[in-house]
Amino acid sequence: MTIFDLDIRNPHHHSDDEAESFEDMSAEEIMQKFNAMNWKQLQILMMQMRGGKAVFTVTNNEENLAVQISLVEMPDSDALTFNFESDIGVEVEQKNLFGLLKYHRTIDASLRHLNLTETRDVLDAFTHFELDKIRKLYQQKEGLPLAN
């Protein structure tokens, strides 16, 4: 069973040092914490407190991977919106020299403007080590071809 560490930074925390930290959590406990967060209330607090952030960071120390989910303060719609940052490598094909040469490079998966359901799905995929699911979603959202 994979064990995770969790850091939660709320808008009233003035720095990352004040974040709440939890160690040795299971995938189910991570999802319970995420679902227990009052995201709408945190969004309101972010608007009231300039510079406030709501960030949910999960670390898998065994695989040396981490994801950071941050609530968007002023989304384009009334729905909750999240940004997902990770150090999950995605190999993509790049072209240069007028498209004649192709090469592969690895970039970190980063997703913007996810709704609550998508964010839950991505977090669940990370905690169950379904990284290919995250890579495919990244490919779809960014329109980048994956390397063969």
Please tally the helical runs, counting DSSP H or I stretches of 4 or more residues. 4
Number of strands: 6
Q: What kind of sheet is the major sheet?
A: 6 strands, antiparallel
Helix content: 25-40%
State the end-to-end CA separation: 31 Å
Average pLDDT, to the nearest integer? 89
Order of helices and strands: EEHHEEEEHH
Which geometry do the CA atoms define? globular
Radius of gyration, Cα only, in angstroms?
A: 17 Å
Q: Strand arrangement, largest sheet?
A: 2-1-3-4-5-6
Structural class: alpha+beta
Low-confidence stretches: none
Q: How large is the share of residues in beta strands?
A: 35-45%
What does this structure look like?
There is one protein chain. This protein has 148 residues and is of the alpha+beta class. It has helices at residues 27-36, 39-48, 116-127, 131-142, and strands spanning 4-9, 20-25, 55-60, 65-71, 82-96, 101-114. The protein has a 6-stranded antiparallel sheet. Helix 1 runs antiparallel to helix 3. The longest helix is centred in the last third of the chain and has 12 residues, at 116-127. It is globular and about 50 Å long.
Question: What's the topology here?
Answer:
Elements: E1 4-9, E2 20-25, H1 27-36, H2 39-48, E3 55-60, E4 65-71, E5 82-96, E6 101-114, H3 116-127, H4 131-142
Antiparallel strand pairs: 1-2, 1-3, 3-4, 4-5, 5-6
Helix pairs in contact: 1-3
Distinctive features:
148 residues; alpha+beta; six-stranded antiparallel β-sheet; 6 strands
